[in-house]
Write a structure and sequence with these properties.
The complex is a heterodimer of chains A (about 725) and B (about 160). Chain A is α+β, with helices and mostly antiparallel strands and about 725 residues long. Chain A is built from 17 helices and 27 strands. The radius of gyration of chain B is 16 Å and the shape is flat. Classes of the chains: A alpha+beta (about 725), B alpha+beta (about 160).
């Protein structure tokens, strides 16, 4: 007979079994402790590196912010022009629209180089030359030339960037922030002494939404520009500000110019590291003035080539290490997925970037990402292999759309913030609103990922110490947790699990379950093109260029062997490809695709695997793409991105003569593509939309009593 | 030793043991009250394990390891590995405050069925964690009834995707 059991007994027995095993066999540290105390958070999108007419951009502050926060819907935005000085007033809005054809130099919209295959906004294009934000400070300030703190005798007179930031740009930024109810504030793309560019920010003093409606200030940001931007040659101490750039306790104080109160010397044979030293002083200054509300993130770090102190170019791995060692909570990553993704040379990376023989490191980008990150086992893996908290970011670096107007959808130069690239950053709002401080905390935490072309818009990535029994049940639990996190646009908060930017501490021999959930958004992205992706067309796949599909996800991992001492010069300093800049243990640990992930109708893909018997400290990171392995000219047999510069080499001729590699044969392929003998080649924005990637930041796994992962705060 | 964490886990276990008490049907042709006794025995031994001070060897006690059938294997995880893990954790917990514990996962709605001639049965249940974000999943595994006591039997033929 069948007996009805009191289930109490069954429940007690099973609970006891599993409960015992859970308590007794799982070992975690930081992550386990953190889960209970972590406020609920969400991933928010933003960008922190773009330009206006206050430096070398083409738009006003208002229009760029409108494009970023409204048109492309970013949740937060940091305006960051170059340092130095400039003549144009970016706080003036665009004039009324002009008819499009005259603005483009066309007699009418049916003629000219674009024929009828480009978009023409019905309202025309903003006026450009000497109108709107292209007017000078001198012609638009009530005090005229006398109101400009700058130098030189040229007309119009250039204004120091510190004055622009402090007296003019900041108020526009804060007003726009309040009007849009989004954190929008001002930063600086620093011309870093000794190097090229760095996205920097000193938030302290600024009061973007949701701060109380009392005007804040960007005085510290302005002072940082005066003190540490290479192109700011002002020696007035910021006129009435009388700034002093000294940093307490530093050994470089003796290098300060007695008048300017900043380091004003130049790199020379005798002082070849002066620029780099000055840059480090800037990081120390941030640490002193705004230790939790500053950041320092090298931009397009491969573009200018290897480090050249005398010519202020480039970054080698030792510089990233120096930056991070100086202030790990301020210098915590790089923008290795650069902007300018629609440029003739993707990312503006190319041969001879800095003059004859001075190529970008890696020459081109690789799937739109610099070689420092794109090459497995390269610079980024070397830094992660130390256990450093060094994170990956993307930026749009918007200046203009090349041959196209700002309201056209095509581009031969840049994409707007949020149009093509996004940084997704975990922000713990709790019961409060999204804040600028919370966003900087999120950037610093490493709990973020970067995406191009909306390839994915949600990610749950977690590693959990496995209770071992029963394996199938725990695997299912962690997969479900990752999937739930994606549904909520949140993270997994389970004790004993770590997500991006965190570490999981386990005993030697422990098993770890890694679960990943991504959402491949349904519908179309911001691409204006619906003809088949020419790169995929090569391999017989017909997929609209504006409706990409995630093809696969790679789990990349490597061993953590500990920090390298600066005194160990062989391991500390070196060029890309050297022992110092390599991690030989790094590799693709797992590949997930439609064959081994679970796909839901809403685009969520869930996958997991077990790492048995972990014996060494290590890290895991993700990348994914719409391109299968061995897509000609795009990916190699292992799925690694190939050099974009090879796909569409540099062609400086007025009339193109150098063919690309991938033909764009569809009748809808736009006229602005590189065309030779009537054959159009995938190039400019089309090649960008064809080749999409995402990169996650890493999860560290620390084996107890083994190599410590110390870079995670 | 992080006794506060141990205590918390113990409390959670206790909560589990009481919280999952629900009534539902499960089909096993037990034929007598001896099955009930088997469950009672198992639960009592588990509670005894946790009632003992950890420092006194609760985690490394014979009872702690004696939840697994000698033939137990879950993928590559055997009873001996389980015992080794228990001992290693016990030592580590006492030596390193950085190590933390995973709270007890709760099992609800258990149903045991499909017992074969060797008293190997299928356990179907719901696994629920007790963290800030709660997740629950259905799962299935094997248990074995030996001399009036249930043990985990494992999944010796677990799919390779694990």
């Amino acid at each position: 007979m069948k007996k009805q059991f009191n289930l109490r007994h069954t429940a007690m027995a099973v609970s006891a079994l599993i409960g015992l095993v859970s308590v007794a066999t799982v070992q975690t540290a930081a992550a386990a402790d953190m889960a209970k105390t972590k406020a609920a958070g969400t991933y928010v999108t933003g960008d922190f590196h773009n330009h206006t007419t206050c430096s070398d951009g083409s738009l006003s502050m208002k229009k760029l912010i409108d494009k970023s926060a409204k048109t492309f819907g970013l949740d937060w935005f940091v305006q960051a022009d170059h340092g130095g000085s400039s003549t144009r007033n970016c706080t003036v809005s665009e004039d009324s629209f002009e008819p499009v054809a005259p603005a483009l130099g066309l007699t009418n919209s049916a003629t000219g180089p674009y024929s009828s295959s480009v978009t023409y906004p019905s309202g025309g294009q903003p006026a450009t030359t000497l109108k709107g934000p292209n007017q000078s400070w001198e012609s638009t300030l009530s005090a005229g030339r006398a109101g400009i703190k700058g130098d030189g005798t040229a007309t119009p007179k250039a204004m120091w960037r510190w004055q622009e930031i402090k007296e003019f740009q900041y108020k526009v930024t804060e007003d726009e922030s309040r009007a849009r109810a989004k954190p929008i504030w001002i930063g600086l793309e620093q011309n870093a002494p000794g190097h090229e560019h760095v996205s920097t920010n000193v938030l302290k003093g600024q009061k973007p939404w949701p701060e109380a409606a009392v005007l804040g200030n960007a005085t510290l940001q302005a002072q940082y520009e005066y003190c540490f931007d290479r192109r700011d040659t002002d020696t007035s101490r910021g006129a009435e500000n009388q700034w002093d750039c000294s940093v307490a306790g530093t050994t470089s104080t003796d290098a300060l110019d007695t008048t300017a109160r900043k380091i004003t010397g130049t790199n020379a044979t005798a002082t070849s590291d002066l620029g780099h030293r000055k840059t480090l002083e800037g990081i120390k200054w941030m640490k002193e003035k705004a230790p939790t509300t500053s950041y320092f993130v090298p931009a397009h770090p491969e573009r200018a080539g290897k480090y050249d102190a005398l010519n202020n170019r480039g970054f080698n791995i030792e510089h990233f290490r120096n930056f991070n060692n100086t202030a790990p909570k301020i210098a915590f990553g790089f923008e290795s997925m650069p902007g300018h993704q629609a440029s003739s040379n993707r990312g503006e990376y190319r041969a001879n970037f800095g003059g004859p023989g001075i190529d970008s490191v890696g020459v081109g980008t690789y799937g739109g990402t610099g070689i420092y990150t794109a090459r497995i086992g390269g610079v980024w893996d070397a830094l992660l292999g130390e256990g450093r908290g060094w994170w990956f970011f993307a930026s749009s670096d918007y200046h203009n759309r090349g041959l196209f107007g700002p309201d056209q959808l095509e581009s031969t130069q840049d994409f707007y913030p949020g149009e093509y690239q996004k940084d997704y950053v975990m922000v713990r709002k709790g019961s409060n609103s999204l804040t600028a401080e919370g966003i900087i905390d999120g950037l610093r935490s490493g709990n973020s990922f970067a995406v191009s072309g909306d390839l994915i818009d949600r990610l749950g990535f977690v590693a959990c110490a496995q209770p071992r029994v029963p394996l199938a049940a725990f695997k299912a639990l962690v997969e479900a947790a990752a999937s739930n996190a994606v549904t909520k646009n949140a993270e997994v908060r389970i004790d004993g699990c770590a997500t991006m930017g965190e570490k999981l501490v386990v005993l030697p021999g422990a098993d770890v379950v890694v679960a990943i959930a991504v959402r491949d958004p349904q519908g179309t992205n911001n691409s204006p093109y619906n003809f088949p992706n020419p790169s995929l067309k090569q391999i017989g796949i017909t997929q609209p260029l504006n409706a990409p599909v995630l093809d696969h996800v790679d789990v990349i991992g490597g061993d953590v062997t500990g920090y390298v001492s600066p005194t160990d010069t062989t391991k500390y300093a070196g060029l890309e490809g050297s022992a110092a800049a390599s991690n030989a243990s790094a590799g693709i640990k797992k590949v997930f695709n439609s064959q081994n992930w679970t796909a839901a109708a809403n685009g969520v893909r869930v996958m997991s695997y077990r790492i048995p018997a972990v014996k060494v400290s290590q890290y895991l990171r993700l990348r994914g793409t719409n391109l299968p392995a061995a897509t000609p000219f795009e990916t190699d047999a292992s799925g690694n991105p190939l050099n974009d510069y090879e796909l569409i080499p540099q062609d400086d001729g007025v009339t193109a003569t150098i063919a690309g590699k991938v033909v764009c044969a569809d009748a809808a392929c736009p006229a602005h593509l590189r065309t030779i003998n009537g054959v159009k080649y995938s190039s400019f924005d089309v090649s960008g939309w064809a080749d999409l990637w995402f990169y996650s930041n890493p999860i560290f796994i620390e084996v107890n009593k083994s190599v410590k992962v110390v870079g995670v705060q | 030793m992080n006794l506060s964490r141990i205590s918390l886990s113990t409390i959670l276990l206790a909560v589990v043991v009481t919280a999952v008490i629900t009534l539902c049907d499960f089909g096993i042709d037990s034929g007598s009250q001896s099955i009930v006794a088997a469950y009672d025995s198992l639960a009592n031994r588990a509670n005894a394990t946790y009632a003992a001070p950890v420092a006194a060897g609760g985690l490394t006690s014979t009872a702690a390891a004696d939840r697994f059938d000698p033939k137990f294997v879950d993928l590559t995880f055997t009873k001996s590995l389980a015992s080794d893990a228990l001992k290693a954790n016990s030592v580590a917990l006492g030596a390193d405050s950085e190590l933390a514990l995973i709270p007890v996962t709760q099992v609800t709605n258990p149903v045991i069925s499909n017992c074969d001639s060797k008293n190997v049965c299928t356990l179907n249940a719901t696994l629920v964690n007790s963290d800030a974000d709660i997740t629950s999943v259905e799962f299935s595994t094997k248990v074995i009834l030996v001399s009036g006591v249930f043990y985990f039997y494992g999944e010796p033929f677990s799919p390779p995707s694990l």
